Amino acid sequence: IKMNGSKISHLLLKEGREYSERILKGLTAGVSHFHAVQYIKKELVSNGFIEIKEMDKWKLEGGKSYYFTRNASTIVAFTLGDKVEAEGIDLFKVIGCHTDSPVIRLAPHAKIEKHGFQQMNIQPYGGGLWRTWFDRDLGLAGKVIIKEKDSDKLSSKLWDSKSAVMSIPSLCIHLNREPEFNPNKESHLKPILATSVVDQLMGEGVQAFADKPDVFNIERKNFVTFLDRIAKDLDVDIEQIVDFEFCAYDHHPPAITGFHQ
């Protein structure tokens, strides 16, 4: 089949576009490292991979593909050759990558109330370009540890705010005359969740533990309205929330840019 250079170029561009859109789909779904693993897991299952447990004794068959997860934040997948049962394994091809990235994570004691604003205490994770986190609509996502109602059994659920719930505003220009913008990641990266007045109005009637003890100190460390939102989204009671690990993400989805896309 003969094809001129122009047709080949357009074909390559089309394939590149399709591949890029698959990457964007994964980036959009992976709002946290936990959600990234969940997305990868679904992709593997749809392509015939079989789930196994890391701590079990494996019974593997040649020509099949398997995967296992650890802590909901790590996933390992592999494929065995067709002749592995007869000839054994003498060659490994290993590809490694990471599901996490430099990000803003909520600190264990998250709530800060200052100057009439409710802010979130954070922990910068990794070596990030922290100035790029300012003036963005930020969502929150991660894993929540839940205690079963009638037992001490613990389970985990993934949570995503699915909306912009906080922001880190820049200082107005007449209050900052420095030629370079070098934010202090320990003191300046404190996202604003709400004003205290609005939160009080929206939180009327919201009670966390009422007459029940705050066994896990979850209310002491977080805003009640914030806990109420998580509990409602996950269809659990606030007192069932034991702990969580959340990170911020840009609520605006990734996109392909450029004049010709």
UniProtKB/TrEMBL annotation:
Enzyme class: hydrolase
Co-factor requirement: Zn(2+)
InterPro entries: Peptidase_M18, Peptidase_M18_dom2
One cellular-component annotation, GO: cytoplasm
Signal peptide segment: none
Domain of life: Eukaryota
Record EC number: 3.4.11.21
Swiss-Prot/TrEMBL keywords: Aminopeptidase, Hydrolase, Metal-binding, Metalloprotease, Protease, Zinc
Record Pfam families: Peptidase_M18
Gene Ontology molecular function: any one: metallopeptidase activity
The reaction(s) this protein catalyses: Release of an N-terminal aspartate or glutamate from a peptide, with a preference for aspartate
GO biological process per UniProt: proteolysis
Family label: Belongs to the peptidase M18 family.
Protein name as annotated: aspartyl aminopeptidase
Species name: Strombidium inclinatum
